[in-house]
Amino acid sequence: MEANGLEPSLEADRRTLIRRVCLDLTGLPPSPSQVDRFVNDTDPNAYETLVDSLLSSERYGERMTLAWMDAARYGDSSVFHDDGVRYMWPWRDWVIQAYNENKRFDDFTIEQLAGDQLENASLDHKVASGFNRNHGTTDEGGVIAEEYRVEYNVDRVKTTANVWLGLTMECGQCHEHKYDPISQKEYYQFYAYFNVNSDAGMQTRNGNSAPMVKVPSMSQKQELQQRRDKVAAMKEERAKANPTAKEMDEWIADHRVSELPNTPKLDGWHFLGSFTGKNKDAAFKKNWGPEKTVDLAREHDGKKWEPREYEDGKVHTPAIPENSAAYFYRIVTAAKAQEVMVSLGSDDAIKVFLNGKQVFANNASRGPAPDQDKAKLALTEGDNHLLLKIVNAGGPAGFYFRLVGSVLPENILALLREDVLSEEHVVKLQEYYEKSAWPLAKELDAKIKAAEKAVSDYDKGIVTVMTMGDLAKPRKTYVLARGHYASPKKDEEIFPGVPAALPPLPEGSSPKRVGLAKWIADDDHPLTARVAVNRYWSMIFGAGMVTTVMDFGTRGALPSHPRLLDWLARDFADGGWNVKRVFKQMLMSATYRQQSTATAEQLRLDPENVFLSHAPRLRLQGEFIRDNALTVGGVLNGKVGGPSVKPYQPPRIWNEVALNGGLFYKPDNGANLYRRSMYTYWKRSAPMPNMMAFDAPTREKCVVQRPRTNTPMQALVTLNDVQFVEAARLFAERVLQQGGEDFDSQLDYALLLTTARPADELRKRVFRNLYDSQLKVFRADAKRAGELLEFGETKRDESLDSARHAAWTTVASAILNLDEVITRE
Amino acid sequence: MIPLFNSDHLLDRRKFMNLGARGMGALGLASLAQPGLLNAATGRGGGVLGNPNFKPKAKRVIYLFFSGGPSHIDMYDFKPGIRKIHGIELPDSIRKGQRITGMTSGQKSFPCVAPMFEFKQHGQSGAYYSEILPHIASLADEMTLIRSVNTEAINHDPAITYINTGTQQLGHPSMGAWLNYGLGSPSDNLPGYIVMISKGRGGSQALYSRLWGSGFLPSKYQGVKFRSSGEPVLFLNDPPGIDRSSRRAILDSIRAVNEAKFAETGDAEIQARIAQYEMAFRMQSSVPELTDLKSEPEHVFDLYGKDSKKPGKYAYNCILARRMLESGVPFIQLFHRGWDQHGNCPRDVRYQCEDIDQPTAALVKDLKQRGMLEDTLVICGGEFGRTIYSQGTLTKDNHGRDHHGRCFSMWMAGGGIRKGHVHGETDDFCYNIVRDPVHINDLNATALQCLGIDHEQFTYRYQGLDQRLTSVLDPTVITPILA
Predict the structure, then answer these.
(1) What Rg value do the Cα atoms of chain B yield, rounded?
(2) How many CA atoms lie less than 13 Å away from B425 in the CB half-sphere?
(3) How far apart are CA A365 and CA A99, in angstroms?
């Protein structure tokens, strides 16, 4: 700096400083009480205390994660073709937690890249590995799956190399890297680590694709455990339950009588028919007369019962017209109550009634054959009335009947029929009874089945997240000629490895992805720490010391402060990859704490402020502009994590581009309209337009540093989008409720909320003028005031004077649009 | 730690300057260093390109993009002998084992289908046009019809991304964004790149914001979508209860504070922001004026046909496009959806052509009448063509066609384009190119040429590479189609 004729600037005042550090570390403005406390804090360590408290806020993890979501190309949709829904938010929540817990960056790296391959990988480790499942996937009907499977791995190589190593490895897909020492073969060595992943080329437009894991929430875990416990308890009860000796003895005694070969007596058949319906189903459904009671003397539709000879165990083909039903009746006499099985056949549909109750039905369409169905008949002692109904859809008809006999298995029947029961026989019969015939067992088993279904139903509702996971049998890797999926050079198999220009893999390094991850996360890797620290620097200073944050190659920019970068990087790795510590180092520096106003001399000598002779002024990223508006409006919903939400969006953004125009955005209601912007559902073919206006990337590809443009579309968003207009109205409401009685004190409060400082004379004059002029307008036209105050879902405080509220809303909107409000100074 | 930055000998000062600093590309930096290069007597509106590489023949572009894959066989690529192949199996000598999509690769039979439409020769070139394009056929002497456009992609998403951004890989700027970056906009109250979308009668393939997105370029270069209902531009309307004078009062207060802030900090971004807020204010009146067709006389609506008064229809968008071109918008892209005729090809291609035929021809004629065609480049086509063989069963009067990228037809007219010309030729099966292939990147390079831009020199440094719209492979400017 000094070599270029520049001098450092003075330290920024405390109001500027607290707002700057809050925005940089949390993306949110300080509250008036935070400002007040800091401004009046005489402790020499006041600033350090502030930095520490912000680093320990949950908001820090969110702010860091938002940046990582760009790098990880995070989205809630699948990108290619239909761009359907997917669920990766549990991965996003893992990242928030990791930053908040200050997970060491080397561990973070290993888990993001290869958590699934750690020894005894926990669910959390597997979730972390979802980093490399965030890329776009396709569901397009005509795709050649291999083309896309390759594409996914190409993306993983690019993202991993760009984000962690600052290497434009992707150039090696088609040819030797033109500028950096990466050969095409080395590219495919790196690629080989990913090429064995088990996900398919063709994925889905509706949810997640394997490999994936279920990620129950804490309450879901509890609920699931409760349901599982219930099943276990029931099973235990079932295991413990024993029939009494008396029950068993009675059953054996009863069945030794009922199951003796005393086959029920079968009388001859009677036929009634036929009855034609509108169609087969109608004929099948309708009771044409005898289904409740059979009275052989009674006529139905002028048709009479007539005796027929049908030999059992043979297929018979009585004539039944199209769409018609006929009945077959016989008396079955049992010496004792018993269950018997009958075997049936029919052309087409069949129903069986016993003593006026339907006991079997099959609305089949088929030709007749023996033994097509089986039905159980619970015969009472004495005469039983058996009625078959056969329905023919068309062509020939037919039926088949055979008495099978007992419903008990052959071996049990044989035991029951033994003349003398040995001890061994009794034990076998008792076992059978307990397992299959005991009524209580049947009841318990049914309950267990239902409880098990309740477990699996609940389990189905638990969100999954996609993870990495290698094939059981690894796929071979070859160099792809010109990077083309269908042109592998099969003369030489390529094995996992890293470019020779970088340090070699350690002895015994795993040939799996975890080996690559550990190599990247090594303390002495020349790129990882530098690239990471440079990225953190760019988050705080607006540009990296190496401005090309994803390219540390020979075509990248040279570092503006190489020794500082090296020192910070070395210290980062040596200091336990402690991310919060690096941030604290940067934030405690005098460079960071300078004021952001620039002198004419500074602007002339160093227009891009490469030498940081003053702090940069940086327009906030879109998410933070929205979060700030919601915060000062007092409606920011502070919930951390969870499924993505759908705040206000103009109509038809989705279906305008969606496949067949069939997909509509349905905004949420209530508190979900006011979540932090990082939780907005991110559909990558049609992303949220108010954020896109502020340079949010589509996240189809990894982005480490966003551009920072300045456009009229941005003005239209913050002036007119219902989200911002409503926030201004709520902000005005808050100011009127809490800002004191007179306009000046209200304005002080409003500017304290947004800029951390009270109003000066100029701002007082300007906004007083605006307020007065608009108050006149809204006094004269109450309808307009009402319209403005009704914009947005949240109801206003009706006790406030509407003209004053509307006039203050215009002031609030103007404040939310000030350069100093959307800028971190 | 292993020293990393000891490779200074690799990079001399000149190279460093070219590396771009603070996120600016090489051109951006060059123009910062020499602001005189900007806008130097070119009439160009603030883009990074200074003097043109060539004398530009066209100052603006209207790109009529028919998404889904219009059937070149049923519209443009006719040869008298084609009736003879109707119903015969596609010979292996023609398919040559080339890949086809997963939708027909399982078909047992590939019966060829001649178009179920009549074709006639038009204009001095004697080019054939389908009976379903009578109005476009009347432009035969205005345009160059290219029958040999080709792409490697065989499915919608990669193909439409490829032709619009120059690569199948995601993350690259669209053609319009490139030109917005390079040329800027001479209009001070309208965006430099506008997109409008319309839809045919049937289902349609998806579009993606990346097709008009800015990719790795700053987002201010992305296309601004004009919409047919509600606000013509998102967030354009003042909220309820705020009228123009209230809006003005709010903006004046913002401006007063921002000016004070600029005086205090010297931050040029504040000045830019003041200007952007003013442009937003102007757009709030200029856009509704532009999109209000009340001032158009009845004969204009007659010219553009039956749909010309229906907002959201292609015909309506064509009139809007002409008005935008007149207002100085340099790049306009109309997307008309619904060209994916896997089935019911004869009926649905006819429907699609009914939507676009008259309005497209009307737009060209309207521009000509107004003396604007000579410096407006018109580009018309889709992401690929369709197969000669039937997808599904071929019946007496029905069939489908699958995607076909090996050859398809597009046409260009206006500034810089040869009139009454047919370029390229396909084989008897409209399957392979036999003469003068035009890759989609050749087509884009040629379009840039018409605008006075050497596509090889129009680059942006990103991820170590001097990226181009036309890819780093070497496309050719197709000089025979230039006037």
Answers:
(1) 24
(2) 6
(3) 64
* B463 close contact with A: CB closer than 8 A: yes
**Do the Cβ atoms of A707 and B230 come within 8 Å?**
no
Chain B residues whose beta carbon lies within 8 Å of the beta carbon of residue A788: 239-242
Percentage of residues of chain A with pLDDT beyond 90: 78
Indicate whether A33 belongs to any domain. no
Contact list, A774 vs chain B (CB under 8 Å)? 246, 249
User: What is the total count of domains within chain A?
Assistant: 4
Subunit contact B249:A774, Cβ cutoff 8 A: yes
Query: Could you read off the pLDDT of B16-38 as tens digits, one per residue?
Result: 333 333 333 333 333 333 333 33
Quick one: which H or E segment has residue B333?
A: strand B331-337
| A763: chain B residues, CB-CB within 8 Å | 257
Domain range summary for chain B, segments of one domain joined by +? 58-229+311-382+389-404+420-481, 233-295
**What are the CA-CA distances from residue A256 to residues A119, A336, A381, A411, A421 (Å)?**
61, 11, 16, 13, 10
- B8 contacts on A by Cβ (under 8 Å): 558
If 0-12 CB within 10 Å is exposed, 13-18 middle and 19+ buried, where does residue A258 land? buried
Give the integer Cα–Cα distance in Å for B205 and A598.
Answer: 52
Residue B152, token pair as written in the block: 């490697």
For A287-296, the pLDDT digits (tens) are 999 999 999 9
Contact assignment for A721 to B273 by CB distance below 8 Å: no
Reply yes or no on domain B58-229+311-382+389-404+420-481 having CATH 3.30.710: no
| Residue A577 forms part of a structural domain | no
Minimal CA separation from A127 to chain B, in Å: 26
Domain presence at residue A581: no
Domain that holds residue A247: 225-254+427-460
pTM of the model: 0.81
The 3-state DSSP class for residue A605 equals helix
Same domain membership, residue A825 and residue A722: yes
Residues A758-804 have pLDDT tens digits of 999 999 999 999 999 999 999 999 999 999 999 999 999 999 999 99
pLDDT tier, A132 (very low <50, low <70, confident <90, very high otherwise): very high
Query: A788 and A640, same structural domain?
Result: yes
Whether B29 has its CB under 8 Å from any CB of chain A: the answer is no
Contact (CB<8Å) A719/B16: no
Give the N- to C-terminal CA distance of chain A in Å, as an integer. Answer: 21
Query: Å from A42 to nearest chain B CA?
Result: 28
Distance between CA B456 and CA B443 in Å, rounded?
14
Residue ranges of B 212-231 with Cβ closer than 8 A to chain A: 213, 217-220, 222, 224-225, 227, 229-231
pLDDT digits (tens, 9 = 90+) for B402-415: 999 999 999 999 99
- Using the beta-carbon criterion (under 8 Å), do B261 and A698 form an inter-chain contact? no
With a cut of 70, which residues of chain B have pLDDT below it? Answer: 1-46
**Nearest-CA residue of chain B relative to A721?**
B235
| Residue A403 forms part of a structural domain | yes
Sequence-distant (6+) residues with CB within 8 A of A631 are A28, A29
> What pLDDT shows up at residue A590?
96
Residues of B in contact with A537 (CB under 8 A): none
Contacts of A686 in chain B (CB under 8 A): 208-209
Are A270 and A167 part of one and the same domain? Answer: no
Phi, psi angle pair for A212, to nearest 5° = -150, 165
Closest by Cα among B207, B105, B124 to B161: B207
Q: How confident is the model at residue A582 (pLDDT cuts 50, 70, 90)?
A: very high
Report the CATH number that the domain containing residue A310 is assigned in CATH: 2.60.120.380
Residues A633 and A686 in one domain: yes
pLDDT digits (tens, 9 = 90+) for A490-518: 999 999 999 999 999 999 999 999 999 99
pLDDT at B28: 34
What ipTM did this prediction achieve? 0.83
